[in-house]
Design a protein that fits this description.
Helix content: 40-55%
Number of helices: 7
Shape: elongated
Number of strands: 12
Strand order of the largest sheet: 1-2-3-4-5-6
Largest sheet: 6 strands, mixed
Distance between the termini: 134 Å
Strand content: 15-25%
Number of domains: 2
Structural class: alpha+beta
Length: 347
């Protein structure tokens, strides 16, 4: 009995020891199946991470598309408004359904002879569409048939228009008085011709060149030479503004030199520019005190007269003109000290 109990006890101890050893071996050396599960889990985690990254990118793409949609939706609304405004202005320009509001700031002024300055407040409310703005200008011009001035200037700022008429302004920018940016239109009547300009800036304009505003023909040498000879013969130092206007009319531009001529020999109180023999109302890219070689060589214009005034009398003048088969640009100047310069302008 004793031996039986002892054997049983010994068997239990031996079995427990074997189980303990087996468990230790199991912990230190995973089975093949367990190693495969670990690799599978790693792969699954990697795929899950990639899916999460893909989802993040898709969300960003979706947000971008949603933002683009909102942007296009807004642009579409603006387009609808512009189209509505376009149809309204086109219809009004053609049918004259209503008159636009305007105010004549000045009819006659010794500073700007035979010029009418018009303030048109509604211009500022137009969209930034050049075609609409031109149509608005055309309609506004049609409303001013009773105004007989040689020049009609259109302004979007009443304050700037008043300052311009009174001469009460100073240079406050690199190109002179910034108030000139408020002028958006200019009608010039020259005999049987009318020239209408849509003004983008003091030195840039777009000519309306159709119908009654269109001019044809290219200036010939004999016509240009006759004009130049006439200027040389008649324009002298001391000539008054009214005498010059009597000679060549009121179709001239008041030139803002931006201070560039202030230190020169021919620095003056004021500058005017006349253009002769234009194929159409050409507008040079550069300021009017710069020789317009492009316009002359292409015979968009035959000759330009630039005048400096001191105490309302001619202080000096220069003529630039084109002649010959090679379209050479000639320069002639009578300086304020009486000296004369003549040359052919080179590139």
């Amino acid at each position: 009995m004793k031996n039986t109990v002892f054997g049983l006890f010994f068997g239990i101890i031996l079995t427990a020891g074997l189980i303990s050893i087996s468990s230790a071996i199991s912990k230190s050396e995973p089975s093949i199946n367990e190693r495969e599960m670990t690799a599978s889990e790693i792969e699954t985690k990697s795929k899950l991470k990639q899916m999460q990254e893909d989802l993040r990118v898709k969300r960003l793409d979706y947000q971008s598309l949603e933002n683009k949609y909102e942007q296009l939706k807004g642009e579409n609304e603006v387009t609808k408004e512009s189209l509505g405004e376009y149809f309204h202005i086109v219809s009004n320009a053609i049918n004259g359904e209503k008159d636009y509001k305007y105010e004549i700031i000045k009819d006659e002024n010794k500073n700007i002879p035979n010029t009418t300055v018009v303030f048109a407040e509604e211009y500022k409310g137009l969209s930034e569409n050049m075609d609409l703005q031109k149509l608005y200008l055309l309609r506004l011009v049609n409303q001013l048939n009773d105004v007989k001035s040689s020049r009609i200037e259109f302004w979007s700022s009443k304050e700037h228009a008043i300052s311009y008429v009174s001469g009460d302004f100073e240079q406050d920018g690199s190109e002179g008085w910034t108030g000139m940016n408020s002028r958006f239109g200019l009608l010039i009547r020259d005999g049987n011709y009318q020239h209408l300009s849509y003004i983008l800036s003091p030195h840039e304009r777009d000519e309306i060149n159709f119908g009654m505003y269109k001019r044809e023909g290219t200036p010939k040498d004999e016509e240009i030479k006759a004009t130049v000879d006439n200027i040389k013969q008649n324009v002298k130092g001391g000539l008054t503004k009214q005498q010059l206007i009597k000679l060549y009319g009121e179709v001239y531009e008041v030139v803002n030199d931006g201070g560039d001529l202030f230190e020169s020999l021919n620095a003056s109180d004021e500058y005017w520019s006349y253009s002769f023999h234009k194929t159409y109302y050409y507008s040079p890219k550069d300021p009017l005190y710069v020789v317009d070689t492009e316009g002359l060589r292409n015979r968009y214009v035959g000759a330009n007269l630039f005048i400096g005034w001191k105490n309302d009398k001619v202080s000096f003048y220069s003529i630039t003109y084109v002649l010959g088969m090679n379209n050479d640009v000639h320069f002639y100047a009578l300086n304020s000290d009486g000296s004369i310069i003549e040359k052919i302008v080179k590139d």
